[in-house]
Amino acid sequence: MAAAEQDGVAERQREAAAAPDTLNEVVDTLGNSLLSVWGDFVAHLPFLAIGLLVILLTWALAWLAGGSSHRLVGRQARLSLLRLVERLVTLGIWMLGLLLAAMVVFPGLSPAKALGGLGLLSVAVGFAFKDVFENFFAGMLMLWRYPFESGDFIECGDILGKVEQINIRMTTIRKVSGELLLVPNSVLFKNPTQVLTDRPSRRVTIMTGVAYDEDLAAAVEVIEAAVHKCDTVMAELPVQVFAHGFGGSSMDIEVTWWCDPTPLGVRRSRNEIVIAVKAALDAAGIEIPYPYRTLTFKQPLAVAHSGGPQQAPDS
Q1: DSSP string covering 283-310, please?
Q2: pTM
Q3: Which domain range does residue 279 map to?
């Protein structure tokens, strides 16, 4: 029994003596690994410097190409098409530049491997950022087809305002009430959008009416003459005044003219037309009636006569 205990004690003494040697080996291995990594990093510094230089050259070339992209489409091209070409050229240069920089930094990387890895990465990123890419491609298509430009007034659902800038991912719109609205391009691309200033003029219609006792043809002539005298009406385009139908208390008249297409221009023109039509009808003695109502009671009503008792009317 004593011999066994002595053997155990000797074994523990040998393990305790070997522990510092093991720790020293671990420390030496770790130190050698760090030194090896540092040495590889220092040896790779020229490749990193060249890769950084390639990125700087790519940035400079993209800036120069973006500034001179108007030569590809001509100076008379629309602003949206010019922006599209500029961004496509810049994007292509950056993709080639980053690919070249990666091949310089990692010498074993070939174009086929880089493109394959980029394809797998694009699939993963496409699922993760579906909305971002949807807005991106919608912006590219909008710039290509240029349905509207910066400065146009558009209306899409509840959105009404002036387009300030069309970016790749979103469009900035200044609402007529003054707020700045950031709208994802996919919203404008997938929903019906009215471009209010696509043409230099816009047709506006209001309804008015005259009493049934008045001469309808004379009223139409008076209204048409009044509209022609307004400054906000475009004289080169026709003014149309038509009898529309029979209203509840008046004969309805439709008044149509062309004016400035902006929301403020439409409001200003409508204000001038309403004032002019009212003044012209008043000057001609033509009545614009209030609503008339005729009340019919099922049972006869008692009528009170002054100075006498109330009597029911004869049935």
Answers
A1: HTT---PPPP-----SSPPPBPPTTS--
A2: 0.57
A3: 202-283
Decide: residue 301, CB within 10 A, 0-12 exposed, 13-18 middle, 19+ buried.
exposed
- The answer on 215 and 181 residing in a single domain is no
In a domain, 256, yes or no: yes
Closest by CA to 148, choosing from 180, 179, 192, 178, is: 192
User: 97 lies in a domain?
Assistant: yes
SS3 of residue 128 by DSSP: helix
Report how far Cα 13 is from the mean position of its chain's Cα atoms.
Answer: 79
Q: What is the pLDDT of residue 315?
A: 43
Lowest-pLDDT range, 79-83, 127-131, 197-201, 214-218? 127-131
**Whether 222 contacts 286, CB under 8 Å:** yes
Q: Which two tokens stand for residue 170?
A: 């979103």
CA separation for the pair 114, 109 (Å, rounded): 7
Residue 2 resides in a domain? no
Q: Helix, strand, or coil here: 167?
A: coil
Residues 156/194, Cβ–Cβ less than 8 Å: yes
Cα 193 from Cα 85, distance rounded (Å): 24
